[in-house]
Amino acid sequence: MLESVAKVGSLTATPWIYVVVALSVLLDVFLPVLPSGVLVVTAATAAAAGTGAATGQVPHGVPDILALTLCAATASVLGDLVAYRVARRGGERLDRAIARSRRLSTAQERLGAALTRGGGALVVLARFAPAGRSVVSFGAGATHRRVREFLPWSALAGLSWAAYSVALGYYATRWLGAAWLATGVSVGALFAAGAGAAYLMRRTPRIPEAS
User: Fold this and answer.
1) What 3-state class would DSSP assign to 29?
2) Which helix (H) or strand (E) holds 38?
3) Of the candidates 204, 200, 211, which has an alpha carbon nearest to the alpha carbon of residue 114?
4) Global pTM?
5) How far apart are alpha carbons 84 and 76 in whole angstroms?
6) Which tens digit of pLDDT belongs to each residue from 169-192?
7) pLDDT tens, 148-157?
8) Which residues contact 157 (CB under 8 A, 6 or more apart)?
9) CA distance 128 to 191
10) Which of 15, 103, 145, 183: CA 20 to 30 A from 60?
11) Alpha-carbon separation of residue 173 from 84, 137, 166 (angstroms)
């Protein structure tokens, strides 16, 4: 963990931090094992430490917190749209793969019903759950949901997730001071949010079809 913080911290004085964050967030819809959330939190922690957040001093040469948030949110939405398009064009092969998985079939059914009734808050909730973003994005495409039903909720989900992750790193550093401690607490809070979102998704009752 400390080694990762040091590596990210070395990037905070260069524009490459935005590229690394964007690529990680963009690609983790296909590879959920990528620690994009941890990277965003760590970048925010390193940025806050570099700006002297504890003293309120903001010198040049460190990432801008707002820019970091918008970078992560934009990459999240773009990744969702790519996954949506891939699934929409996946054809029968993807449909059969989903049909073989009870978990994916159930998630797909709930997502379709939620989007139809304007209950896209499920998309926002799934963004925090482990692999939830992948299930939702591919599910929306596979069921041929209209992009205007999916995109606004994807944008809200990406912005909510990015703002939460960046705020964790920034304010933890401001309150706790030590970057390593702030990073540990922030990552723990991020995982806790993911576990809570996954639990709520499992507990969400199936939405009945309208008669």
Assistant:
1) coil
2) helix 36-50
3) 204
4) 0.76
5) 12
6) 888 887 877 666 777 787 888 888
7) 888 999 999 9
8) 76, 80, 123, 124, 126, 127, 133
9) 9
10) 183
11) 36, 33, 11
